[in-house]
Amino acid sequence: MPWKRETPMDQRIKLIGDWLSGDYGKSELSRRYGVSRPIVDKWIGRYAANGVEGLKERSRTPHRRPNQTSEAVAARLIEAKLQHMDWGPKKLVRYLSIKSPETRWPAPSTAGELLRRQGLVSKRVRRTKTPAYSHPFHGCDAPNQIWSVDYKGQFKTADGRWCYPLTVTDNDSRYLLACQALARPRLVETRPWFEWVFREYGLPDAIRSDNGSPFASVGLGGLSTLSVWWIKLGIIPERIKPGRPDQNGRHERMHRSLKAATLKPPAQDLHRQQEAFTVFREVFNAERPHEALDMETPASRYCRSERRYPDKLSEIEYGDEFEVRKVRSNGEIKWMGHLLYVSEALRGEPVGLKEAGDGLWELYFSTRHIGDLNTKRDRFETPKV
Predict the structure, then answer these.
(1) In the chain, where the domains are located
(2) What is the DSSP letter of 360?
(3) What is the mean pLDDT of the chain?
(4) Mean pLDDT within 97-116
(5) How far apart are CA 260 and CA 328, in angstroms?
(6) Which pLDDT score, from 0 to 100, does residue 197 have?
(7) Which long-range contacts (CB under 8 A, 24 or more apart) does 337-340 make?
(8) Alpha helices, DSSP H only, in the chain?
(9) CATH architecture label of 146-301
């Protein structure tokens, strides 16, 4: 692609933008822009040393520039865009206004037009908006009422190993509590990071997840070993409906930003991928303005939970109206001379049965109603909503 119809400066900025995206190597850039490999090396080197200013021609002829201030502002805007290719003009202007409040920054629309002329604005694919919906989840109008969790979008790093990003966010403030590059999405890898998050930030009222392992299982009440532990900590496990990621929409939007900023391309290995996740988390929380927060940052809205992570779990107790049984190692309980399967996730735990009339019994774990027993059928069923 020869340099036509645009100034050389415009083309250099586009070249640097393509280089920083990670989608092109130097040889590919040479062919794409119709220049030699040494020229590509020269402009990448100048940008690394001096930023956007380094992309300008070095003229020995002194000249006056009456619009020098506006050019400097444009250069800083372009510099910020090249550092945060997934940010739009509104976020960039807000970010720069916080960094340099004494500077007169352009309106987001003007900034967007400037970036568009430089080829730094990609055409956005318009998504069909999901209609508003009502759901039985708990309300959320303060930090730590609901956290969202997920293992999102497993991928291979450059060395061919799988990476599973474990992400935890606070729904109200959008604060990204954890973003860990793990080799397996199993309980043994997952629980230590939740212990870290709980010690660092305290306990939420509820945790919302999808229906995958290790957050849920196909057993009674959808309980898993992990969600049983949450219940024992006084945390309510909430699960979105299958095929409805929109019910965790705030978390899904964060994942789109995470992918754009850290996976184009993936890092060399898990260690370097974690370094990229750590940088993203710091920027996402403390620097990136959030439109849903009136262009404030998540860090400015989040505060730690007053519920501390306990050193020891309390014993689960039931009232006099309950018949208490201990779940065996195979997930069964003995009831009226019969062995009934409950869930292996509850092995060793006490469960309570409360009579509901007409041969029906409600099964509880702690305060959670997890199943119904029809004595005529001698088996548990998930409660009907």
Answers:
(1) 8-117, 146-301, 323-381
(2) E
(3) 84
(4) 88
(5) 47
(6) 97
(7) 338/378, 340/373, 340/378, 340/379, 340/380
(8) 8-21, 26-33, 37-50, 68-83, 89-99, 108-117, 187-201, 225-232, 249-262, 270-286, 298-301
(9) 2-Layer Sandwich (3.30)
